[in-house]
Amino acid sequence: xxxxxPVTDHVLHPHFGHCAGFALLDVDPTSRAVVSSTEVVxxxxxxxxxxxxxxxxxxTTVIAGxxxxxxxxxxxxxxxxxxxxxxxxxxxxxxxEYLAGTLVTSETTCHH
Length: 112
Known about the structure:
It is a single chain. This protein is of the alpha/beta class. It is 24% helix and 27% strand. It contains three helices and six strands; from the N terminus they run ββββαβαβα. The protein has helices spanning 49-56, 69-77, 91-100, and strands spanning 2-8, 11-12, 21-27, 34-41, 61-63, 81-83. Strands 1, 2, 3, 4, 5 and 6 form a six-stranded mixed β-sheet that branches. The chain starts with a strand and ends in a 12-residue tail after the last helix.
C-alpha cells in the first residue's frame, strides 16, 4: 500500500492540484504501519496529469483536503482510493490517523 498526501512546506496542502509536491508513504499491509516515506516534487499542474503520475508511482490511496471532480473520477477509474476533507498537518501524522481509523475529515468545497 502506498499513500500520497499533497504537501507544501512539509504539511498537507489544502488543494490537491496546486501543491508543491507529494509525501509518498509506504505501508506494511499486515501491520498497517508506515515503513517509509519520501517527498517528491509535483510536476507542473495540468488537468488530469496528477492522477496518472501518482498511479505510475504505485499510489493506492490519496489523502487530500480538496480535489476537483475530474481528478476524483480518474482516481476512481484507476481503483485508487481517495479520502477528502483531511486537515492540514504533517503527512506522517495524517497517514497514521487514517490507518488507525481516527482521521477527522470535514466537508470539501472544491467543485471544479
